[in-house]
Amino acid sequence: MSDAVKTSRKYDSRRRQQQAERTRHDIVESAHSLFADRGYIGTTMTDIADAAEVAVETIYRGFGSKAALFAEVVEAAVAGGAQRAQRPIDQRPAIRAVMDEPDPRLQIERYVATQPGIHQRLGPLVHALRAAADVEEQLADVWERLENQRLDGMGRFAQLLADRGALQEDLSVEDARDVLWTLNSHDVYDKLVEQRGWTAQHYQRWLTDTLTFALLTSN
């Protein structure tokens, strides 16, 4: 086999992979827009296929089900886009910046700075999920899995603070994790910003101060 043929096949393979990634990205972005606008029940797989300009079969082949696609849309919203969601969590720039920061107080500040954007992107999806959870049984499993992932992430953050000797002496890693998981929840953001009218900046300052007071030593 000639080198020219080998090079061509490598190129074609790379191009096909890039096209597949682009198609997946378009499907997730289209689904996000539709779920946020029409809700879960009001959005069909045909609607998503039409918006992404793909066949319905392509979506089922890539994601398996509407609920699985919704889960990936939520994960992309948390990550800040479908492409970022494909990276390991510890390789995402915002998370890396938190992990690499040596000052625990600045770690919390950097972490909290990511939260308003995440909650703004998540809000319509959370409402869509809750409105459909009683109708679509799979969505209950999706929400439980996503919350468990969030709990695991808060556990890793709490452990990082503990490893640096930053947690209060009488505070266990498990309790610190639960505090982070509760105060960073979308429910708290929704109550303060959406219902009580706090600005994102007010919410961010409050969350930074509250977590710092609740978790860190005074040294």
Q: How would you concisely characterize the structure shown here?
A:
This protein is mainly alpha-helical and 219 residues long.
Characterization of the model:
This protein has 219 residues and is an all-alpha fold. It has two domains: 1-86, Tetracycline Repressor, domain 2 (Orthogonal Bundle), CATH 1.10.357; 88-219, Tetracycline Repressor, domain 2, CATH 1.10.357.10. It has twelve helices and no strands. It has helices at residues 3-38, 45-52, 56-63, 66-79, 82-85, 93-100, 104-113, 115-132, 137-163, 173-183, 186-195, 200-215. It is globular and about 60 Å long. The termini are far apart. The model has no long low-confidence stretch (mean pLDDT 87).
Key traits:
single chain, 219 residues, mainly alpha, Tetracycline Repressor, domain 2, 78% helix, globular
